[in-house]
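Technical note accompanying the year-one report. For the benefit of new consortium partners, we illustrate the data format agreed upon in the data management plan: each record pairs a sequence with a structure-token string. No post-processing was applied to the example shown here.
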Amino acid sequence: MINPIYSPDSSRYDNGMKYRRCGRSGILLPEISLGLWHNFGDVNTFANSQAMAHYAFDKGITHFDLANNYGPSYGSAEETFGMIMKKSFMPYRDELFISTKAGHDMWPGPYGEWGSRKYLMTSLNQSLRRMNLDYVDIFYSHRYDPETPLEETLQALVDIVRQGKALYVGISKYPKAAAEFAYRYLAERDVHCLLYQGRYNIFNREPEEEGILQQAKENGTGFIAFSPLAQGLLTNRYLNGIPEDSRIAKGGFLKKEALTDETLKKIKALNEVATQRGQTLAEMALAWLLKDDMVTSVIIGASSVAQLDDNLQSIKNTKFTAEELEKIMKAQTARGIDFESGGLLKRVKSMVPIIVPLFVAAIRRANDLAMAMESRCYHGGVGRTKLKPLKYEKRDKIAYIVLFVFLAVMIYLSFFSPWR
């Protein structure tokens, strides 16, 4: 039987989806956007990918987020979306907001990744052909390139807009200093940075802790969050073990080492808060990101229409009481450690420049303290000035106690202090 021609739901803009203004711009994005990182590649059935795209649009999702190397294999997600455009979405192109990116590994050789002008422009030309598009709505520099001059990367974005191949540009995963430079450089050339895309979820709160969210807001740039469910950790998938069909079991980006006993306990604690709210853990995790105006949209991934529908339930309740937020704060994992991208190691590295000098100072202080105590030890009657040295074992014990207390305080401040 021939599939009928796709006709979107006539009530797609009246079925509960809400739209948020993207920074200081005329663009409104749906609170939930659909990401095509996985489940839209050539290893997936086209029928399922098409069904999810149709359902998303029927429910008011107008933003579809792609990148040159999404799949798997590389480029295949864009090819799948290109077929969906040709078969279904082309009459509705003006209702869609489509993104793609370049920055990560795409093809062999020295010009197949990072942030050179050659790579960015060549990659976008390839993406447009794969997606059957004349232009994308937004093109991102997918990651900061520490080797290429940032001016070269940003000028390529400016020229891409002026060539009409993208209406807007954005940056993804840029460190704060580089993002500030990008905002200023682009603004000076009358090309506004529309969006900053970053990893943000209950487990990984680096965008708020490092000031990325506030910086974007001050520059009139929207923030769009990816990995809102921490690769599936913030769902009920792992409450009773590791399912055979889960990402951990399949050996994907989420590793088994991420699901420690401590993490599982905190997932269960968060699940209790979600249950009290009348939501699933996934619904609450998505709603938590939308609790205020700091986040413009949340990019979700889905493997089925049913999963997509479950995630869409989150927008029905995005308000949290102070008590609920406090419970989430207490239940969450170790204060923003990112299980997906080595956040613990990054946190330790970030503390080294602070810990090492203070550690050396503590050793010296411990030695001074021991010498001071030694100088106060007299023998004989009052007024005698002959010193009685302390035993070296006692002096060492004093030093060890001081160092132990210092290290304990530093570990606490590094990982658990509310003002770190």
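Partners are asked to follow this layout when depositing records. Residues 343-375 form the longest helix (33 residues).
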